[in-house]
Write a structure and sequence with these properties.
The chain is built from 5 helices and 7 strands; from the N terminus they run ααβββαβαβαββ. It has helices at residues 2-11, 14-39, 70-92, 111-126, 139-142; strands at 42-47, 50-55, 61-64, 99-103, 131-135, 147-152, 159-164. Strand 1 and strand 2 (50-55) form a beta hairpin.
Length: 166
C-alpha cells in the first residue's frame, strides 16, 4: 500500500538521498547558468553520478566533464564554487559569506579563458555581491584587479605591499 511504501522510504536513506539529489541538481543548474554566461559555450549537467558538459558550439554535444581543457575545468569549478556559496547563503539565514578566495588555477587558462573568467569576476564585483580574493602569479590578471597585495619572498622573511590598481 501507499502508506507501507512511504513508511519504508522514510525508514531508509531514500528520503535523505532524494533531498540531497534535489539540492545537488539545483547546485548544478545554477552553476550551469553561470558557466554559459562565463564561457558562452558550455552548460553543465549531472546525471548517473557524473558531470557532463553540453557544448553549444558543437551542436549541443554532451560529453563527460573530464574532456574539458584545464582552463575550462577551472571555469566549471569556479562556477560550482560560486553557486555553492549562493546556495549556502540561501539556506543558512544568518550566515554571511561576503568573500571568496581563489588560490591559483589561473595558470591553466589560455588568454581567452583568462579574459572570460576575469570579466565574470568583475561583473560579480560590480554587482556588489561579494569580494573575490585571487592568489595568482599572472600579471595579466592582477593588472585588471582593483587592488593587489604583492608579496616578495625573502631569505627568512617576506615583504608585502598594498597597491591600488583600478
Amino acid at each position: 500500500s501507499l502508506l507501507t511504501g512511504m513508511a519504508a522510504d522514510l525508514k531508509t536513506d531514500a528520503f535523505q538521498n532524494y533531498l540531497l539529489e534535489e539540492a545537488f541538481r539545483a547546485l548544478v543548474s545554477g552553476a550551469s547558468v553561470r558557466m554559459r554566461q562565463m564561457s558562452d559555450r558550455y552548460t553543465l549537467d549531472w546525471h548517473d553520478g557524473e558531470f557532463y558538459v553540453i557544448d553549444h558550439d558543437n551542436a549541443g554535444e554532451q560529453r563527460r566533464a573530464e574532456t574539458l581543457s584545464g582552463g575550462e575545468t577551472f571555469m566549471a569549478s569556479l562556477c560550482l564554487a560560486l553557486q555553492l556559496s549562493d546556495e549556502v547563503l540561501k539556506t543558512s539565514g544568518a550566515l554571511q559569506m561576503d568573500s571568496l578566495f581563489i588560490d591559483e588555477g589561473f595558470g591553466t587558462l589560455d588568454a581567452d579563458s583568462l579574459t572570460e573568467v576575469t570579466n565574470a569576476m568583475e561583473a560579480l564585483r560590480e554587482g556588489g555581491s561579494r569580494l573575490i580574493g585571487v592568489i595568482s602569479h599572472r600579471p595579466e590578471l592582477t593588472e585588471r584587479l582593483p587592488g593587489c597585495i604583492r608579496v616578495q619572498k625573502g631569505a627568512g622573511e617576506s615583504r608585502w605591499s598594498l597597491e591600488r590598481i583600478g
